[in-house]
Amino acid sequence: MKKFLFRLAAVVLILAGLSSCSKDDDYDYVQEFSNNNDKENLIGTWHILHYSNGWGIKEDYEAGEVTVTFTKNGEMQVVNKREDQRPFATGKWTYSFVDIERSIFTGEPRTCISFGYFFTYSYTFDKGFLYLSQEAFDGDGYTFQKLK
After folding, report:
1. What is the pTM of this model?
2. If 46 and its partner were Cys, which of 13, 53, 100, 144 is the partner (CB 3.0–4.6 Å)?
3. Quick check: 52 and 144 in contact, CB under 8 A?
């Protein structure tokens, strides 16, 4: 009976150890950003954590499933390992920082990130995360986590 309990305890410990591992363990994340230097904070590789369509539907993504690399020259490289290629297809696009006269969120002027000519997003950097909210009522929203 003692051998059985010992083996059972060993199996439980092994299973507990395996179940505590996650895909996030393979990545090293940024914890803090430079103060007041948004352009520098954006440069680098991010992975998308969450997408919201503005109508209450939220989709979570696995670590490394969709990564976006922002370069100093205004390009962004998307690598999407998903078969459906949501929310961004693999490829290269441009981005820029733009000033808008009136944010729908605050009613005040604000610097935003623009992707191509179509979409403008308010952004917030916080403890290794980037939050994007489309400057449109019921617009898309994204949460990214920065990789080192």
Report:
1. 0.77
2. 144
3. no
**Residue carrying structure tokens 């990789």:** 147
Query: Do residues 51 and 34 touch, judged by C-beta distance below 8 A?
Result: no
DSSP string, the chain: -HHHHHHHHHHHHHHHHHHT--GGGG--B-----TT-HHHHHSEEEEEEEEE-SSS-EEE--TTSEEEEE-TTSEEEEEE--TT--SS-SEEEEEEEEEES--TTTSS-EEEEEETTTEEEEEEEETTEEEEEESSTT--EEEEEEE-
pLDDT digits (tens, 9 = 90+) for 79-131: 999 999 988 899 999 999 999 999 998 999 999 999 876 789 999 999 889 99
For residue 80, give every residue at least 6 positions away whose Cβ sits within 8 Å of its Cβ, in sequence order, or none: 65, 66, 86, 88, 89, 90
